[in-house]
Diguanylate cyclase (GGDEF)-like protein
Amino acid sequence: MLIQRWFGSLVNRAVALVTIVVLVTALIVTGAGSLLSRTELEQQARDQVATIAELVSLELDDRLGRRLEILSEVAVSLTMSETALRRRARVIVQQQVALQHEFDGLYLIDTEGQVLAEYPEAYEQTGLNVSHRDYFTRVASQLTPVISEPFVSNVRNHPAVMIAVPVFNHDGRFVGALGGAILLEGDDFMEDFSDLTVGETGYLNLVSHRGTIISHGATGEVMVPVGREIPVMTEALAGFEGTVQTQNSLGQDSIMSVQQMAQVPWFVVAVWPTQEAYAPITRASDNFVWILFAVILIVVPLALWLFRRLMAPLQTLAIQIQERYQGTRTIPVEVAGGREIRRVAEVFNTVTETLHQEQQRAESILGVLQEGVLMLDADGMIRFANGAACRFIGVDDNCLGQNFFDMVTIKAAGQPWHRTDFLKGADIDSLYATLRNHRAVEFDIDLTLLHIRQGLHNEQLVFVLRDDTERRREEQRLSWEATHDSLTQVLNRRAFTATLVKLLGEAARQDTPSVLMLIDLDHFKPVNDQGGHLLGDDLLRRLADLLKDSVRHSDTVARLGGDEFGVILPSCGLGPAEILAEKIRAGVEALRIEQDGRSFGVTASIGLTELTIRDSGPREVVARADEGCYVAKSRGRNAVVVVPVPPDSGDSGD
């Protein structure tokens, strides 16, 4: 009973499962401990390559040193005069049996660089001048033994290295040089080096500090430039010595060890591809992978089975919660399992009941709101709607289950908005739009949109619709009052000035000039004084109507203040404008108002002028037209005066 009770807790079951996992992990970690040997194996491979490079370097140094030493001893024994050296050259060379075994070619050279004698004579180098060779230049100038850089010899163009030592007479004067040639493709000096390998696929390179490959163990190349694309080779040319892991000239990942030589400015490079060098590590890793794979095949199914058994009550709980959410389950959730799962079920039932009460309260509140509130699914089906929302849609009763986008058409800025526009777009704080429902009733609305779980299969859209008709009407009214004269219903001075500024900006693009007409009423004050302000106001309204009836739809009529009116005639020209002004003048003169047996009327002094690109602003144009009004008044009033545009100063004559 105690054990059963202990396992009744989901936490305890999880602890037991974790314990098992930890034990299995410990076994795997123990097996993986063998991987720690990888570092040691890698170090052994690096040490092996470094040792080979060092041994080969020492061996080559020893061979070169021994040959240099023998050649130097023979040169010392040849102390004689230059004449004797020339006379006995062939005999001297033929007698050097020891040197003949150590070198592929033996040469005696005079001070001028001419070969006096050679062995073997089959090379036919006797009489050849080698003064241009680097080794002769150095031995003649330095008077010390020299080991040359690799060069192409005259012996069938074979690559070779020359060891040259100076020969002196009894007075210590330089009388010639004794040289021993080593053919890099010969079977003596380089044979053993060329056949050496590192493992089965590794090889050795011998390179001079001048960047010339003396021997390439992989390709057999000689006398070719070293590849500078390998950083370690570039560093070796500068004196680097050590072991690194990099790519070789064949593009293989390799361990490369560089060992500088002591006798000559050469270095040995031992190269061992890591594929072979780390083969034991790879095999161990493969074995470990197979073991790990076997463990996984056993542990994973077992862990899955145990976990599913432990989590089965939670799966049942999830199904019941989903049914409760979708409304197909009306009773509280009931689930077996551990104490923790039963506690979750109890909390869920409590929360669900509380949310149900809160939902009813929220629906009651939303029901009395004037704003329409809807919740839609991704297809546009209405899942919740308050009464105001249904009225917007044009449904008298419950509109749940209807497709919102089939019932209404929404336009904003003249463009229709579809379901995909709302789905793919961001949340909307405020969108001024027009909603037309299926009954053809239109509403000016302010729309707010909120996405819930956007992009998921259970995405929902929450719309809030506010009737914006009154606000827009008020906005239109205020906008109209800001631009119109309240008495005459024509534009006021502010709107008139804005229109004039706009036309001045377009003057350069107009083929026919626009015209400004200013109308100043004559004798208006007596009408106000004798007939009263109401009569004056009535006269102003009739004059405004006369002006509106006289001009085109594209023309602008404005009251500028008191008894002054302005008319803007776009693309009219002075000729037609003057005719229109005379018509307006005559109409004003003919307009009479009767009151108490008396007749009242006024006349008009009218000034006309064109709008040009030379005008700096509306003030300049208005001043010019106003000047026409003054001239008309000075001529007795009731007249039309055209004020021409002053000539451009740049166009003036003498």
